[in-house]
Specification:
Distance between the termini: 31 Å
Radius of gyration: 26 Å
Number of strands: 10
Mean pLDDT: 90
Strand content: 35-45%
């Protein structure tokens, strides 16, 4: 069954490297303000923006042979942003706009947007019913061609669901969920055993 995503998520990370921790923090605050300004200008009703706490990593000098000397070379400060919204076009636009901040000197890593479909449980129930009905029709066709009749149901089991991009042949033993496309195809496999 083909479905269209009704929610999306964008993630971005701003990173600053500086020899002085306080100077690095001030630079990160400037970059944070610019990212928030972009998000505030673009987001509408139903959008949720979260800004993570600052994470700091100390980078040590390395000497000959790659061994650390114990002297501090620099500090790396990082802050993550996340936007969720039911406005799919907004999510795609933010992903593009965030990358343009690089030209302003903001060191941002804009991750590809992710898209989700909220009512998957209802789709799964419909697919199990359709797959079970299809299994019975196939069993009856096999039986007719073999000169026998289909007897009672002996067992039935549900396999994993594959949620893929349209026209994809991708499968996984544990199931799959493609979040890179707005349109998705949900596939179900049901194994049914009958007596003949």
């Amino acid at each position: 069954e083909r479905v269209v995503s009704d929610a999306g998520m964008w993630r971005g990370t701003v990173t600053v490297r500086a020899s002085d921790l306080q100077a690095g923090y001030r630079e990160l605050q400037r970059d944070t303000a610019r990212v928030k300004q972009m998000l505030d200008a673009a987001t509408g009703n139903g959008a949720a923006v979260s800004v993570a706490a600052v994470t700091t990593r100390t980078v040590y000098e390395t000497g000959p042979g790659g061994a650390q000397t114990g002297r501090v070379a620099s500090y790396e400060l990082e802050r993550a942003f996340e936007l969720t919204s039911s406005d799919i076009k907004l999510i795609a636009r933010i992903a593009g706009d965030a990358s343009s901040l690089i030209s302003e000197g903001v060191n941002i890593n804009s991750w590809p947007p992710q898209y989700f479909f909220g009512d998957l449980n209802a789709v799964k129930v419909r697919l199990i019913g359709a797959a079970t009905k299809d299994a019975q029709l196939r069993a009856e066709q096999f039986a007719t061609n073999s000169g026998v009749t289909v007897g009672p149901l002996r067992s039935a089991s549900q396999g994993v669901f594959q949620i893929t991009r349209p026209n994809s042949t991708d499968t996984a033993d544990y199931g799959s969920y493609d979040t890179g496309t707005v349109e998705k195809v949900v596939k179900a496999v049901v194994t049914v055993e009958y007596s003949v």
